[in-house]
Amino acid sequence: MALANLASRSTVPRNGFACPVPRLHRTATHACRALNQKQGYGEEVSTRNPLERAAVSIATAAALVMGTFSPLVLEPPAAHAILVASDPIKNAQAILRYALPIENKPIRQIQKELEGISEALKVPGSKSLGPVSRAVRAAQDVLSRQRDAIVKDFAPDKKAAGLASIERLQAGLNEFQAIVEAKDKQAVPDKQRQVLSYVGDIEEAMVKGFPFQVPPEYADRPLLLGRATLQMKVDCAETPEGPRQVLQTIVLDGYNAPVSAGQFADLVARGFYDGMEVQRADGFVVQTGDPEGPAEGFVDPATGEIRRVPFEVRVVGEKEPIYDFTLEDLGRVNEQPVLPFNAYGTLAWARNEFENNSASSQVFFLLKESELTPTGSNLLDGRFAVFGYITEGQDALADFKVGDKIEYIKIVDGAQNLKNGPKA
Q: Cα(321)–Cα(404) distance, rounded to whole angstroms?
């Protein structure tokens, strides 16, 4: 029982829960492509031998079973040491904004100034309002001086929406400055969220088409070529407030995980999760997706066989995801995924430990409280495929218990981005 017990709610993987293609016989092109991407940046490919990697996996497994993790289990070679950012991004909406495939420096600078207000607010009393005011003024200055550079980057079919969002941002920043001048610290977080939502809308308007081509072997799968917003309603039998129904908003990121997000969106569109129970809630993750009956995943009615989800992860600085191989397989464990396990409510595919492509329908939400998942450097990044985040209502995950029922999950926005979905 290791990290991959995220693959099934049973303690022993069921018979047949394996990748349909043995690892040693998988097409070598994916590994070569991934390694070439690495070497293209002038960095050295890991030389850790299989025994060392096996030792890491076994030590990690033991730590997870015991519910603890010690950094003394194995010390990585010095060549692989990295410096973790002092203040990694933990907010799901911020992660999603930074994950958009755009390169406009002025809007990113505005975003950085406004995101930084969260740190300023940690200062007690009114002393935090000085840094907040400076951040707002800096954002106003960039918007004023660099407006043309921002507008120039809008996709032609999204220019009208982008211009409207700029006007909303300008007005919002003016209101923000008035709030600071009135020393109304309580109103700052709400206004910050509002103006950052306008920034996100501006950035969305800069996305021109889909940023890369999905490999041909996966192009006929359900794909999410963009983003989709879902609503999930869960009946919780027992919470501190008593029984209650919880509504949560989930954003799927197909820009960085089109196959993973697409196959989940396809299952949602089919109503696969409607009426399903929470099957694991242990303070580490909340997990569901194991259907009733002998099958441990989604049986595609078109084939009569369990449909699998290939492993997929996009690394910061690369133009397309890596498929089939984890970053650990490739000796790239210290590299950062674009979609990391940094936020409470991170959504990822559960799979069998030694079969990267064994996911099917079981998913988990991370309850990011464990010492196993330090932000910016943890045991999950690059080993499990993240494809979305709960952006609203994520705190309610702490109240979920085994047996709580998912009343429904439905797509409320972005359904047009789902390709090869269920037939009408």
A: 34
Q: Residues with Cβ < 8 Å from 11, sequence gap 6 or more?
A: 1, 5
List the one residue out of 155, 194, 200 whose CA is nearest residue 176: 194
Q: Is residue 63 a contact partner of residue 372, using CB atoms and an 8 Å limit? A: yes
Domain identity same for 243 and 317: yes
Site of tokens 């995801």? 321
pLDDT digits (tens, 9 = 90+) for 117-161: 998 888 887 778 999 999 999 999 999 999 999 999 999 999 999
Nearest 5°: the CA angle 328, 329, 330 is 90
- Strands 322-323 and 305-306, sheet pairing: unpaired
- At 378, the pLDDT band (50, 70, 90 cuts) reads confident
Decide: 252 and 388 in contact? Cβ < 8 Å: yes
* Helix 188-204, helix 159-181: angle, nearest 10: 160
| Surface-to-core class of residue 92, CB atoms within 10 Å of its CB (0-12 exposed, 13-18 middle, 19+ buried) | buried
Q: Is 240 exposed, middle or buried (0-12, 13-18, 19+ CB in 10 A)?
A: exposed
Q: Torsion angle of alpha carbons 113, 115, 121, 122, nearest 10°? A: -120
Q: What is the maximal distance between C-alpha atoms in the chain?
A: 66
The enclosing domain of 163 has a CATH number of 1.20.120.290
List the CATH number of the domain containing 280: 2.40.100.10
Domain membership flag for residue 94: no
* This prediction's pTM: 0.82
- As given in the structure block, the two tokens for residue 61 are 């497994």
**Where in the sequence is the domain holding 405, given as residue range(s)?**
3-71+216-419
